[in-house]
Amino acid sequence: MRGPESLPFRGHVIWLTAHQGGRASGPPATPADADYAATAFVPPESLATGLASFILRVVDRSAWLSEAAGAWLVIPNEPRHQVGVGSIVVITEGTRSVAYFHVDEVVG
Fold this sequence. Notes:
Elements: E1 9-15, E2 36-41, H1 47-50, E3 52-58, E4 65-72, E5 88-93, E6 96-106
């Protein structure tokens, strides 16, 4: 799946290792013409209270740490899902947290 041309949240993503409770297979092998789609939440919300669809466009798809851009897939960027400069978006797969997306800039 490919999201809009420009994604509003810019920063970097850190993928968690299996030892940290994240992905045993490493960063997801997302095709170059697609964005990584998952679910996410913004603390202090949690899996139970703030989960929504999120997309990431990662610069280095094989790196554990990479520049990235992101966006909520369906919901607006408002109170429960508010993302701003300095926010950390917790990327999840099922009930596991697999990455942290650190937001450095919000455009648009």
